[in-house]
């Protein structure tokens, strides 16, 4: 009886219904005010992420110098121009694609923002050696393009527009695509699939009459 009563007390503490993430998201979407608050919170978070990465670049980017000289500083409304009106999900993607490059630069003893095309080329080699998929090279170039534009680096000085980097990305993407195609042709065991005509010729030998 004691055990039954204790079990009943524990059961009373459990929720009357289980609410998963999808359910909570659906409920929030039904409430316009909550949906707007959630969007604003998400936008604020990724706006800060972008702003922080650009300010970290310091003298490497005109935007950072401009913010430090402005009367409003980081609190000024104009500083959010760095986000260029993009949606939070887009900013999130750019930041996510940028972070591995930033970590590599710092680990190699460089500044947090690239200043020389060779730094990007060396990092592309790292991606290649780590068997990164072809999407990784395009994502890196997109992130570099975004942060240089957001950081207001002059058009003629942008690394993303360097022919060496553009060519390297195109080449690596193309080679990865060919590797993928070759792997699909060879099959899971690394052996080339038998042509249909050969299979038809060999098959009769195994027939039992």
Walk me through what this model shows.
There is one protein chain. The chain is an all-alpha fold and 209 residues long. It has helices at residues 2-13, 21-30, 32-56, 62-69, 88-107, 117-129, 134-150, 163-186, 196-202. The protein starts with a helix and ends in a 7-residue tail after the last helix. Mean pLDDT is 83; it is low at 195-209.
- Please give the radius of gyration in angstroms: 27 Å
Span of the ends, CA to CA: 76 Å
Given the structure, what is the number of helices?
9
Q: Tell me the overall shape.
A: flat
Oligomer: single chain
- How many beta strands in the DSSP annotation? 0
- Helix residue percentage: 55-70%
Largest sheet: none
What's the mean pLDDT score? Answer: 83
Task: Please identify the structural class as seen in this structure.
Answer: mainly alpha
Report the uncertain regions: 195-209
H and E string: HHHHHHHHH
Strand content: under 5%
Task: Outline the secondary-structure elements.
Layout: H1 2-13, H2 21-30, H3 32-56, H4 62-69, H5 88-107, H6 117-129, H7 134-150, H8 163-186, H9 196-202
For the structure shown, list the relevant keywords.
single chain; 209 residues; mainly alpha; 9 helices; flat; disordered C terminus
